[in-house]
Design a protein that fits this description.
- It is a single chain.
- The protein has 209 residues and is an alpha/beta fold.
- The chain is built from 10 helices and 5 strands, in the order E-H-E-H-E-H-E-H-E-H-H-H-H-H-H.
- It has 2 domains: 134 residues, Response regulator (Rossmann fold, 3-Layer(aba) Sandwich); 61 residues, Winged helix-like DNA-binding domain superfamily/Winged helix DNA-binding domain (Arc Repressor Mutant, subunit A, Orthogonal Bundle), CATH 1.10.10.10.
- Strands 2-1-3-4-5 form a 5-stranded parallel β-sheet, with helices on both faces.
- 31% of the residues are buried.
């Protein structure tokens, strides 16, 4: 198994490498600390699995995932994130990820998850399975944030964390006008009047750090 480990924190990458060290099925481990390095590595060689953090410098892990699935649709991508399952699990699975694993569970579950996605299976924890079941339950009322597109959800979370439009625009390399448009869409879809309501909702539903 040839694995790319993509995370912007060296300690996390080192921790994953220690878990993988000595595993007879692991032939090579490459590291990437930002979005461009992940894409360059994938384009330059034959890899079996990408372990991808959802938050990377340059682009979000969700954007990187979408690019990877367009270029290498059969390459398994395991999302490894500090964020709880309810924040991103459904979105990344729908975007083509082979599994979602929280960093809190990585020590116990990483090898199992890697082996499953390497075999072409999905790695779905009980928590993610419950969230997915709720998401496809036509009889249940879905939280309004699930109506947002991936980019809108990203902007929503940043507003929920108290960031201003200018800050968000700079961080996402977008114009202030574009971010303002996303904000308008968010308010309309969620039937909110202002940023304060977004912030309260994000805190209540545990959608921000």
């Amino acid at each position: 198994m040839r694995i790319i480990v993509a995370d912007d924190h060296q300690l996390i990458r080192e921790g994953i490498k220690r878990i993988l060290a000595g595993q007879p099925d692991v032939n090579a481990v490459a590291e990437a600390e930002n979005a461009q390095q992940v894409l360059d590595l994938v384009r330059s060689g034959n890899w079996d699995v990408v372990v991808l953090d959802i938050k990377l410098p340059g682009k979000s892990g969700l954007d990187v995932l979408k690019e990877l699935k367009e270029e290498r649709p059969k390459l398994p991508v395991l999302i490894l994130s500090m964020y709880p399952e309810e924040q991103f699990a459904v979105r990344v699975i729908r975007a083509g990820a082979s599994g979602y694993l929280s960093k809190a569970s990585a020590g116990d579950e990483l090898l199992n998850a890697l082996n499953k996605v390497y075999r072409g299976e999905k790695y779905i924890s009980k928590e993610v399975a419950d969230i997915l079941a709720d998401a496809i339950d036509d009889h249940g009322d879905q939280p309004s944030h699930t109506l947002l597109s991936d980019r809108e959800f990203e902007v929503f979370r940043m507003i929920g964390a108290g960031k201003q439009v200018g800050e968000i625009a700079a961080e996402l390399s977008l114009s202030v006008k574009t971010v303002s448009t996303y904000r308008s869409h968010i308010l309309e879809k969620m039937k909110f009047k202002n940023n304060a309501e977004i912030m309260q909702y994000a805190i209540t539903h545990k959608l921000i750090d």
